[in-house]
Task: inverse folding
């Protein structure tokens, strides 16, 4: 059985959105306050949705995990998986922008940005996010 990774969206995380016509791109970067470096043990959830309110529909999504920072091997969701196991529960860009949802997928190791993902070295990730958004 492969290990399961569980991380929390903690204070110090970076959560942004960029409206693009009728859609929105959202990036949730969960950072570990106990890590030696700010970029160690960082989980990134990126997605694009059609719509900018509670009726928004997922278009694409990806999840990546950087256990030892940007200069070391990292883990990514399958680029051909579409939504990457991300479920959008609510989205609001009016007033106090906020997004809620969950994710449940496998991510596989890559030795570098141009290498292929090693599907024999994957971990299961799951969790929820409920956070304010900041315009980029």
Result:
């Amino acid at each position: 059985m492969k290990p399961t990774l569980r991380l929390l969206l903690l204070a110090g995380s970076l959560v942004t959105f960029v409206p693009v016509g009728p859609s929105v791109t959202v990036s949730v970067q969960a950072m570990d306050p106990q890590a030696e470096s700010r970029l160690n043990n960082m989980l990134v959830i990126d997605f694009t949705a059609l719509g900018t309110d509670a009726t928004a529909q997922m278009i694409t999504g990806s999840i990546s995990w950087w256990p030892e920072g940007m200069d070391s091997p990292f883990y990514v969701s399958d680029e051909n998986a579409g939504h990457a196991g991300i479920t959008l529960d609510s989205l609001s860009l009016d007033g106090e922008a906020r997004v809620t949802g969950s994710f449940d997928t496998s991510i596989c190791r890559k030795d570098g940005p141009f290498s292929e993902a090693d599907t024999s070295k994957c971990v299961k990730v799951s969790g929820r996010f409920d956070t304010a958004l900041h315009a980029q």
Remarks:
- Confidence is low (pLDDT under 50) at residues 1-8.
- The radius of gyration is 15 Å.
